[in-house]
Amino acid sequence: MRPVLTAAPDASVDVGVLGAGPAGCAAALGLHRLRYSVAILGRPRPAASEGLGERCVARLLEAGLERAAAAAGRSAPRIGVWAGTRSTRGRECPIDRTAFDEALALDLALAGLRLDRRAARAIAADAGGGWRIDTAQGSLRCRAILDARGRRSGGVERLGPRLVAWSERWRIAAGGGPGSAVVAIDDGWCWFARDANGILQRQFICAPRTRLDREQLRERFETATATLQEDAFSTQRAQFLGARATAAVMRRADAAPSPGRLRIGDAALALDPLAGHGVHEALQSARVGVAAIHSYLDGTDWTPIARFVRERSDEVWRRAVATAGTFYREQARSLPGAPFWAAAADHYERLSVDANARIDAGAGRFERRPVLNGERIELRPVWVSARWPRGVWRAAVTRASREVRDEHDEQS
Ligand SMILES: Cc1cc2nc3c(=O)[nH]c(=O)nc-3n(C[C@H](O)[C@H](O)[C@H](O)COP(=O)(O)OP(=O)(O)OC[C@H]3O[C@@H](n4cnc5c(N)ncnc54)[C@H](O)[C@@H]3O)c2cc1C
Fold it and tell me: How far does residue 151's CA lie from ligand 1's centre (Å)?
């Protein structure tokens, strides 16, 4: 371990982090705080708006990403029109991802970590042990690697329904304040977000076979705004800034492909955007990634580390596909003639059956299993059951109710 702060081309460090989104930045900072030498490489992402929940902002603060948390600002109301019901209870912080990612880089800089804007071209096992990351300007050697390159990282094992997100960005008159809305329509769903700086993003998520020209896309947004009955997301008198289409498929890769090499964030498990907490999950998996690499570099055997990381990923996947199946099925029931909803619900339900088939439904038992204990992954006796296949390690009794509450989050 050396207190190296930045890495020049052809340098050698303890950990190489690829990708400077929330997962990569949170992990790089966590490892830097544990006094490992860290190099973080991250090329910028295209402009986009996203919504962060309040618990996501709390996770950013816990990770020491204070400027990023400040960039998220205060939460604003979110309207939902889903399965024939209108809800105004939701809240989220609409963020500009470019400003948010710059704030993440600033958090790193203030901690003494410089973000290297080079793109990683290839990862290879190094002849002398450890790993080599190749860039156009030289190679970086490291003992361990955290791959946080988002959805573009390889190793995909499972895919959700094919979805594409069509996004438009507009500059609107300031005033009105931030807010967002999600609206289901016949062949997909729309998300509108207005941030505090007068940027409006509108997004339509649908099956890729829905070929849309600008006029057809405009019709979808108009249908959704008419359902919403809100002027706040209107683009009248607004300036068009640009449009793009991106893949929005839920996907899962092997999170622990080889000793000393992990995937975190979307690189390991990218959620359906409908979940609205991809950034939160990226931060949670970064925390596990830090503990896993810390344990590995400290001499812990790789097998329990990889097992913990994979089982956690299994569990997040299982819950996420079940939740997505429920949401899409609800909507399919309220729009029985719309094939988009039934097809997506069917796909998620098949994934859910497949994920649950691999759980041992027998009686509970104690087993020695890897658990996350603070900054390390360690073997401990845990109670394993069909409900908690990764095992419950600690349980707390809440005074108010005297009921036993699983502290399962301790492990996640
Ligand atoms: C349409 C859509 C809408 C979404 N909306 C929301 C939302 O409202 N709320 C929410 O919480 N989540 C949302 N998400 C999910 C969210 O974007 C991700 O879950 C989150 O950004 C994952 O963080 P990450 O750090 O793992 O990856 P990313 O944020 O994707 O970061 C990966 C980084 O790696 C960089 N990179 C890629 N390849 C290389 C390379 N070879 N070398 C160097 N750098 C590289 C990329 O440029 C990027 O900066 C949405 C996703 C989609 C597709």
Answer: 7
